[in-house]
Amino acid sequence: MVQIVLFHAILGLRDAERDIADRFRDDGHSVLLPDLYAGRTAGTYAAGFALADEIGAETVEGRARAALDDADADAVLAGISAGAFRVGTLWSDRPVTRGAILIAGPADWSGLPRPDLPVAAHLARPDPFDDETYLEAWAGDPRASAALAIHRYDGVGHYFLDPALPDYHAGAAELCLERCLAFLASL
Asked: What does DSSP say about strands 30-32 and 118-125: parallel, antiparallel, or unpaired?
């Protein structure tokens, strides 16, 4: 079993992330669930972006980095939407991380992971935030030297694992979680 650090979406730490963490724990993994917004949440993406701007990128990044102080050096980095982007800002600083899970968004390749890092991406098709041209370029980026496995979920909303959002799709959410657990078991 592995330790996972799960970074929340732009909406803040909500029940959806807690439920995902519980699913991982039920499978025997330990999960750290940092609250990068210090208890604040938003109900819409627009409000989430405004909240993130109000808190400030430097504060959010500092809280994410501080959360890793409590994590094992080989902890799996996982993130949802903006949390997936957050993983990309951190993985180059974690040379022995066992893997990365990206849900509802890609990670930035500028902070390059090690070449053999197992990365599982779970992305809606289409996605309102990342169009197909962007995602194709992201997956084909020559800097993307990680062992990347991309799973697409057709006809679902951006954050399709959150039952509180109109994006939610029960079947896709279950399939995504099953695939995440299989990925974790492979590490």
From this structure: unpaired
pTM exceeding 0.90: yes
pLDDT tens-digit profile of 96-137?
A: 999 999 999 999 887 778 888 999 999 999 998 998 898 888
Contact predicate 4/78, CB 8 Å: yes
Those residues whose C-beta lies under 8 Å from the C-beta of residue 161, and which sit 6 or more positions away, are: 16, 20, 80, 103, 104, 168, 172, 173, 176, 177
Rounded to whole angstroms, what are the CA distances from 60 to 22, 130, 165?
Answer: 23, 22, 23
Residues 6+ apart with CB under 8 A from 94: 68, 73, 75, 77
Domain parsing of the chain, residue ranges: 3-186
Give the dihedral of Cα atoms 4, 138, 148, 20; nearest 10 deg: 30
Superfamily of domain 3-186: Alpha/Beta hydrolase fold, catalytic domain (3.40.50.1820)
